Amino acid sequence: MQILGIETSCDETSAAVVDDHRVLSNIVATQAVHEEFGGVVPEFASRAHIRQLTSIIRMALEKARVKLEEINGVAATYGPGLAGSLLVGLSTAKGLSLALNIPFIGINHIEGHILAVNADHPDLKHPYVALVASGGHSILVLVQKPFDYHVIGQTIDDAAGEAFDKVAKILSLGYPGGPAIEKAALSGNDKAIAFPRALLDRNNLDFSFSGLKTSVLYHLHSLQKNSKTIPIADVAASFQKAVVDVLVEKSFRALYSHQCRHLVLAGGVVRNSILRSTFEQRCAAEAIHLQIPDPLLCTDNAGMIARAGHLRLSDGQKSPLSLDVAPNLTLNQPR
Ligand code: KG4
Ligand code: ZN
């Protein structure tokens, strides 16, 4: 079975083709138009999707060496995300389903992130705990069986990726902030500044990153007040370490409190190599089975949507053509 996946929930226009075993192609076009604004401008995002999507789909088919008529099903993100952006991908998928007379399935973007790991590790064992750390979400999910998601922890303010983006903006490092902070941190000392690790003293699985961002801001203000130069590399490394420490600690609390030994990481922040190596070391030390997607499958991409679509369509599920976009869709919401 060959499935075409489409992802247009935010500022990445992406199309991918998967078969039963592999991701055959996964084309992602990042929209450069937002860079000068330091964040995504919704109307520009939808317009860029309209302009690019058809050629991105063509490229995905060509790279996969699959003809449009050979596609057996089409999957597209229907939420959460920007309404105008979601509409472009969803409408295109429905049009293809109608024209080719093949099933269509709407995919929850957060489920797509979690199931990205399935592209390289089809032997996913249940139950597992998934940490989703992206620009829009920071959640811990207990997955007891396929398609059964229980959110057991979440951020009470900013998402982890959002904190990276905001701190990068404060440090004038550009957008998106995650890769910029990771690069700046390379030459820094992660113990230079003792930034707070929020909510670690609380007996829950929730996160909070907004205070950390404010601490960075206060730290910079006090340096400026005393006419000291800002040690950007040290600030970046210490901030990055604070985020990683909290994500690791809460993920392990989630594993132990639910007697679970399998951990899956998902979302754009999981591209961070310090985060990946810290999780790898701790999981090895505590005999936790860790599965992390390829970095290209962590940030927004259609490969993860196509894989999730493949799993659901193989299970006999499909969506009606009347399916609407759901900008505020949550993981637990009934389909
Ligand atoms: O999953 P994603 O592509 O989009 C959402 O669904 O939000 O995640 C994007 C987020 C951005 O906030 C970006 O700064 C962050 O992932 N990110 C990173 C890295 N690469 C992307 N954060 C830390 N380190 C990275 N290397
Ligand atoms: Zn995402």
Structure commentary:
The protein is α/β, with parallel strands linked by helices and 335 residues long. It has two domains: 3-115 and 297-314, 2-Layer Sandwich (Nucleotidyltransferase, domain 5), CATH 3.30.420.40; 125-292, Nucleotidyltransferase, domain 5. The protein has helices spanning 42-64, 83-100, 109-115, 160-170, 177-185, 210-225, 232-257, 273-285, 302-314, and strands spanning 3-7, 12-18, 23-30, 73-79, 104-108, 128-133, 138-145, 148-154, 262-266, 289-291. The strands form two sheets. The protein has a five-stranded mixed beta sheet with strand order 3-2-1-4-5, sandwiched between helices. Strand 7 and strand 8 (148-154) form a beta hairpin. Helix 1 (42-64) runs parallel beside helix 2 (83-100). The radius of gyration is 20 Å and the shape is globular. 5'-O-[(R)-(carboxyoxy)(hydroxy)phosphoryl]adenosine (KG4) binds next to helix 4 and helix 5.
Key phrases:
about 325 residues; alpha/beta; Nucleotidyltransferase, domain 5; 2 domains; 5-stranded mixed beta sheet; 9 helices; 10 strands; binds 5'-O-[(R)-(carboxyoxy)(hydroxy)phosphoryl]adenosine; binds zinc ion
What percent of residues adopt helix (DSSP H or I)? Answer: 40-55%
Largest sheet: 5 strands, mixed
| SSE string, helices as H and strands as E | EEEHEHEHEEEHHHHEHEH
What is the level 1 CATH name of the largest domain? Answer: Alpha Beta
Outline the low-pLDDT stretches: none
**Total number of beta strands:** 10
Q: Based on the structure, what is the oligomeric state of the protein chains?
A: single chain
Q: Approximately how much beta-strand content do the residues carry? A: 15-25%
User: Looking at this structure, what is the CATH superfamily of the largest domain?
Assistant: ATPase, nucleotide binding domain
Which CATH architecture of the largest domain? 2-Layer Sandwich
Mean pLDDT, nearest integer?
95
Radius of gyration: 20 Å
Shape from CA axes?
globular
**What would the CATH topology of the largest domain be?**
Nucleotidyltransferase, domain 5
| Ligand identities | 5'-O-[(R)-(carboxyoxy)(hydroxy)phosphoryl]adenosine, zinc ion
Distance N to C terminus:
23 Å
Count every helix, treating DSSP H or I runs of 4 or more residues as helices: 9
Sheet with the most strands: spatial strand order: 3-2-1-4-5
The count of domains is 2
Helix and strand composition category:
alpha/beta
